[in-house]
Amino acid sequence: MFTSLRLTHFKAWQDTGMITLKPVTVLLGTNSSGKSSLIQSLLLLKQTVQSPDRSIHLNLGGDEISDLFDFGHFDEVIKHGTSSPREFSITFTFRTAGQSRINSGEFSCGYRQTATGVTAIQELVLSAAEHRFRAIRREKGSYAIFTDDETRPRAKGEQLAPERSVALPAAAIVALGSAGALAEDISLAIRRELENICYLGPLRRKPERDYVWNKTTPGQIESDGHRAMDILLSSVLIKNDKQNEILDEVSFWLNRMKVAERLEIRQVGRSARYEIVVHQGGTITNLRDVGMGVALVLPVLVAGYFAPAGSTVILEEPEVHLHPLAQAVLAEFFVALSRSRRIQFIVETHSEHLFRRMQTLIARKNTSVEQIALLFVESAAGNAALRRLEVDEFGRVSNWPQYFFGDALGETREQARLMHTRHQEQHRK
Q1: Is there a single domain that holds both residue 168 and residue 31?
Q2: In the chain, helix, strand, coil percent, each to 5?
Q3: Which residues form the signal peptide (predicted)?
Q4: DSSP states of 260-285 as a string?
């Protein structure tokens, strides 16, 4: 789980300051304010650690098959107007779910563009268990390795360049001696946190009328959610102690949202193809023929149960094409799974209904302000600015940005005023 995040000179952000992240973090804000940049920073690191080239410092993307996002070039990532040195940085802290010898730690990395146009690490800092390891770039691609507060490097040389943003190379590990194993453990813990990010973007693939199942379970859901249907098929067709689990859980939430009573997987004739059908109101309909809201929320629900326990699910606009009640129930879904499966949700949304239900859940004591972070991003003088919404135990926000969700009370007052005025006019006649 990511416990904090800080960006400097990254896209719309001059300096975010250290942003506290919770089991459920909701990002709200105006269009093009910088919300997505917060999410993209973690995706940038995820696709870097998954790069097949271990010598790469930062994978800015471009491969449509393997990359989550195409960031373009260095100049498109660094904040416009950044003066010398032209460097951006990403910092985060994390807490592991218990699969690692590292319980918590910190990653921080600054990047610059070399004379040849390559994005290279300027300084990498890996910290955990009160120990800190630093790799600092010198001249001509040479790096110096430091531990803790030492002022003299343990080693220097071109062979000490970091790998995939998060790891020290073998030569550096050897140079660190007995501390080398700890440096490796920290890198591995950071890599696992990033690899265990499950990301679902706002543009999701439309459902097919039927699917071929290849008798395997996909390794990931994909950013457009199109592997969600394969995950549902494997949940039903693979016979084990978890058979039907994901399908049943997804059906529960669809029913809670009042968009479907349940889902069912049906074989098409005797072929190797299967269709997903929706039961609702006494009718059975192919998923392709129901409203888009059902099809587009399916990957969101599947992600919550498919992601490994203790991992992070990042969602952009999960409420797309859902009616108000269903949008509100999404808040319940996030809170429930963050507790039952220890899934961290980082959600970018424009949904007032989702936000209002989150307030209600706090007031009901279904969750608490210690478990929820509500962050509002806005643009101020050309810079992104972040406001942490201050929420009390009854879900009330004391520093809400004016008119972001419109002025509901003002609209009601105006309707009442117009009704009163019209009645008076009719009475005069």
Answers
A1: yes
A2: 35, 30, 40
A3: none
A4: -SEEEEEE-TTSSEEEEEEEETTEEE
